[in-house]
């Protein structure tokens, strides 16, 4: 008699050419990921060859009950690390039956910015540092923390090792390998300053692909924590008090910044970002005011400042960039629950398209 695990891991290649495509989209809160699967007649490697699909938007907070149909447009394909074989994960965005993007579809507007010739010729690169917190399922308290109590103060946990410092490493490493399998350009992981908090980095990725890859990486993390019976939180300040918050620092460069004389281009871009500080903060994630207090490696939410190697700044420029006169900078303001389509496209729009006059 087959065990459940045998059936979950059943290899279909010997019995059918058909594959399973898991369609993934963003729900009504702007952070809740949804997905459902369908059977396809054979392998597909181009999202344009995938059929559109629909779902009940009234059950995701994205449409009224009397007109609930929302249409999924496939946009990017990744290998499925759960089913493996030729099975795929499909990132979709959502539209009305008339073809209009629904309000929570932030990808559509981002794609327009990234397809602008002025943006395309600058080949914008992004590296996103996604922080998150692992929580015990039934009590919503960080993994490794005593129930109703607190661990020792911050200090030994950042990049720490050992059973008393690193909590949930099996989940983190499983996620790392699953992302590599899927084809996500994940570039690293590390334990963070608060115990139970971790980070993974996606990039360098070009344009709209940065958002696609981060959303799929989040999806894979949610699925792995589901299997492990642990909750993942993207709250920017999950524990009040003298504990670090969680961000999504966004590293950015353009072709002009990466070439000789790029440091001057970087400084002009940072000046533009400062002039639009309020607009960016408003779009950089909910609850960010609880994180951007001027403490715990952040600048105050109402203050814009930049500096070289300054982790208390809004924008940090690395020592190597200053020394070489070219490179990239890090926007440290985005919260861990930010929408990468919004943040990446807004940075491109402000630095490449916006005219301060």
UniProtKB/TrEMBL annotation:
What taxonomic ancestry is recorded? Answer: Eukaryota, Viridiplantae, Streptophyta, Embryophyta, Tracheophyta
Which source organism?
Answer: Tagetes erecta
Q: Which family does it belong to?
A: Belongs to the glutamine synthetase family.
Its keywords, alphabetically, are: ATP-binding, Cytoplasm, Ligase, Nucleotide-binding
Q: What residue stretches are annotated with the GS beta-grasp domain?
A: 19-99
The protein depicted here goes by the name Glutamine synthetase
Family annotation (InterPro entries): Gln_synt_N, Gln_synt_N_sf, Gln_synth/guanido_kin_cat_dom, Gln_synth_cat_dom, Gln_synth_gly_rich_site, Gln_synth_N_conserv_site, Glutamine_Synthetase
Transmembrane residues, as ranges? none
Q: Which reaction does it catalyse?
A: L-glutamate + NH4(+) + ATP = L-glutamine + ADP + phosphate + H(+)
Location in the cell reads: Cytoplasm
């Amino acid at each position: 008699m087959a065990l459940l695990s045998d059936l979950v891991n059943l290899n279909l290649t010997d019995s059918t050419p058909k594959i399973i495509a898991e369609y993934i989209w963003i729900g009504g809160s702007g952070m809740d990921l949804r997905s459902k699967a369908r059977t396809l007649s054979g392998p597909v490697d181009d999202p344009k060859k995938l059929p559109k699909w629909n779902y009940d938007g009234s059950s995701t907070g994205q449409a009224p009950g009397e007109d609930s149909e929302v249409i999924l447009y496939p946009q990017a394909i990744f290998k499925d690390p759960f089913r493996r074989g030729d099975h795929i994960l499909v990132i979709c965005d959502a539209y009305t039956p008339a073809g209009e993007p629904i309000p929570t579809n932030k990808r559509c507007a981002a794609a327009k910015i990234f397809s602008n010739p002025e943006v395309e010729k600058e080949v914008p690169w992004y590296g996103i540092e996604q922080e998150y917190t692992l929580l015990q399922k039934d009590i919503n308290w960080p993994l490794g923390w005593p129930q109703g109590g607190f661990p020792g103060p911050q200090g030994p946990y950042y990049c720490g090792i050992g059973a008393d410092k690193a909590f949930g490493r099996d989940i983190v490493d499983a996620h790392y390998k699953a992302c590599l399998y899927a084809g996500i350009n994940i570039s690293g992981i590390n334990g963070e300053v608060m115990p139970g908090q971790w980070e993974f980095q996606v990039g360098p990725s070009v344009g709209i692909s940065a958002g696609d890859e981060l959303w799929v990486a989040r999806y894979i993390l949610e699925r792995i924590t589901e299997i492990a019976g642990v909750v993942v939180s993207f709250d920017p300040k999950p524990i009040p008090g003298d504990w670090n918050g969680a961000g999504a620092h966004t590293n950015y460069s353009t072709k002009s910044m990466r070439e000789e004389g790029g440091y001057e281009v970087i400084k002009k871009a940072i000046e533009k970002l400062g002039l639009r500080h309020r607009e960016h903060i408003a779009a950089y994630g909910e609850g960010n005011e609880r994180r951007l207090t001027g403490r715990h490696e952040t600048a105050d939410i109402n203050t814009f400042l930049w500096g070289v190697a300054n982790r208390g700044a809004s924008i940090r420029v690395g020592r190597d960039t200053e020394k070489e006169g070219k490179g990239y900078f890090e926007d440290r303001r985005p919260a861990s629950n930010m929408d990468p389509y919004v943040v990446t496209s807004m940075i491109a729009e402000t630095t490449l398209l916006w005219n301060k006059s």
